[in-house]
Amino acid sequence: MQAPIQTRAPLRIQSLPSASTLRFSLPFVVLRRTNRRPVRVRCCATGCGNNPRPPAQQQRRSYPFDEIEPRWHRYWEENRTFRTPDEVDTSKPKCYILDMFPYPRQGLIRRSQQSEILNASGLRYLKEYLLLFCPKKDYANNAKFFLKSSMYILILLKSLGFSYDWDREISTTEPEYYKWTQWIFLQLLKKGLAYQAEVPVNWCPALATVLANEEVVNGVSERGGYPVIRKPMRQWMLKITAYADRLLEDLDELDWSESIKEMQQNWIGRSEGAELKFNVVSTQGCEQGVELPVYTTRPDTIFGATYLVLAPEHHLLPSLISEAQHESVEEYRDLAAKKSELERTDLQKEKSGVFSGSYAKNPATGEVIPIWIADYVLGSYGTGAIMAVPAHDSRDHEFALKYIIPIIRVVSPFDESCDLGGPYLGDGVMVNSSNSVSGLNINGLSCKDAASEVINWLERTGYGKKKVNYKLRDWLFARQRYWGEPFPVIYLDDTGEVVPLPENELPLTLPELDDFTPTGTGEPPLAKATSWVKTMDPISGRPAKREMSTMPQWAGSCW
Ligand code: ANZ
Questions:
Q1: Residue owning the nearest CA to atom 22 of ligand 1
Q2: Residue 525 Cα, ligand 1 centroid: separation in angstroms?
Q3: Is the minimum distance from the CB of 381 to ligand 1 under 6 angstroms?
Q4: Ranges of the chain with pLDDT below 50
Q5: Where are the alpha helices (DSSP H) in 378-471?
Q6: Is the pTM of this model over 0.90?
Q7: Cα–chain-centroid distance for residue 543?
Q8: Residues in domain Leucyl-tRNA synthetase editing (predicted)?
Q9: 3-state class (DSSP) for residue 289
Q10: DSSP, residue by residue, 313-355
């Protein structure tokens, strides 16, 4: 039987209370029906699945929003329906429910949550309004807009009827709140869990700030659509990798669906392998005193490593580029800096690279092999360099074919009738893997046994060691924006030493600034608050400068 069709016109927000009325009355968004657009809705009035077509008048009846919603909102407000009790019953077991809070972003509820909220509540028509209000301009640094948008969010959330106890609302932007965010940072610093490092970051020259991976879409900033490049910068980091194993182990205890747990596992991405060193040599094989560490999950394939690849942002690169290769390497690095990590690791994309002009010695074979630079190797994973084994890795295979680099098979499949047209990625028996000079012979072993044998040999000879790596990265915890918690640290003028502020100096509040747009020099906007930046160590009295980056927007909502 044909499903009945109910028509309901989309609703559009007609008016919003002004910011001034917000304080005194229940904020409420009034929705009105506008032009009629049919929406298919399944109806099961009889409860038997045979949905009779309702009479024409009934078909048009829609939810009397203006009538019902304000009444209930008033009721909830007057009866304090969502008020949580002041007295806590401590006899009950403790329970931590982590809700994902909707929070303002560009004046709106964050997009993912928007759709969750809207779809869950069936108020899809609100989307129209949200799109209407979505600002075209970048408001990252606009305080007035921030306040206005927070009010809109409040209005929207209240109108959606969430059962929040609004009397217990807290704001991460209040100094009394972020004092504790700063206090937590000091504890992390004391424990060595907050540290500074030179890391490749997503740098947006137009916004003059570092962006998180999620804030970069197709190589441009999510806000404003400005080009984003990768460049190394000294930044504050939080050492979440120290908890990688615990995060993995404790997944078992979580009452989550298996698919979500699997996503979490992949996100942590534990991999086991080895870190080993290749010595940089001249074309004649003479050592140059530079060692290149690489990370591999397949130490068993060491005899098949016919070239090395360095990420374009690798710190050792400048010392490896030959005079003749200088121009083409620089050109390649500029191109790579414009690509996101996602683009670089896309398996479908054609591999590209450039020869560095330098060579290294494979410690197992004793062969001199070329060092290439290619953007399919990331500077932020492992050591930022790989030993490439084109016979047994698809990316290396594609690259070796393109640049005519030798391909040496070192694993023979158990099933010899296997098609060996391309790279062989499976398990098998080691072949072509022996050298009396290096004292390593793994021929005839399975891949697994060969891997342990190679790790033993690396540890014996000092060429390397067993290593566990994680996809999970430490958290890049600094932004070059005005909005954000100031870091409670100073840098001594004479030595540059980082000194944490004493806890009784907290909160360290943001200075008032009329102009919080980017400086244009690459320095964060706080550089404009010269009298705030220039300070002295409260303990020793020595002149110092404050940190000018601020914490990222998630800092306050993470604890
Ligand atoms: C040699 C080799 C031979 C590899 C082989 C694989 C297969 P996961 O599982 O992701 O940890 N690799 C290492 N560092 C990299 C980086 N910074 N960027 C891109 N690729 C990198 O994978 C580890 C493997 O990915 C490593 O093992 C290395 O390639 C590559 F038959 O080394 B392998």
A1: 297
A2: 39
A3: yes
A4: 1-52, 106-142
A5: 394-403, 447-461
A6: no
A7: 36
A8: 265-458
A9: strand
A10: T-TTHHHH--GGGHHHHHHHHHHHHTS-HHHHH-TTSPP-EEE
